[in-house]
Amino acid sequence: MIINLISDTVTRPSAGMLEAMMAAKVGDDVFKNDPTVNALEAKVADYFGMEAALFFPSGTMTNQTAIKIHTQPGDQLICDKYAHIYNYEGGGVSFNSGVSCKLVDGERGMMTAKQVEASINPPDFYHSPLTTLVCIENTTNKGGGACWDFEELKKIRKVCDEHHLKYHLDGARLWNALVKKGEDPKAYGQLFDTISVCLSKGMGCPVGSVLLGSKADIDKALRIRKVFGGGMRQSGFLAAAGIYALANNIERLAEDHKKAEEIGELLGSLDFIKKVEPIETNIIIFEIDEEKMSSEEFLAQLTQNKVSIIGMGQGKLRIVTHLDYTDEMHAHFLKILKTIG
Question: Which residues carry this modification: N6-(pyridoxal phosphate)lysine (predicted)?
Answer without folding.
Answer: 201
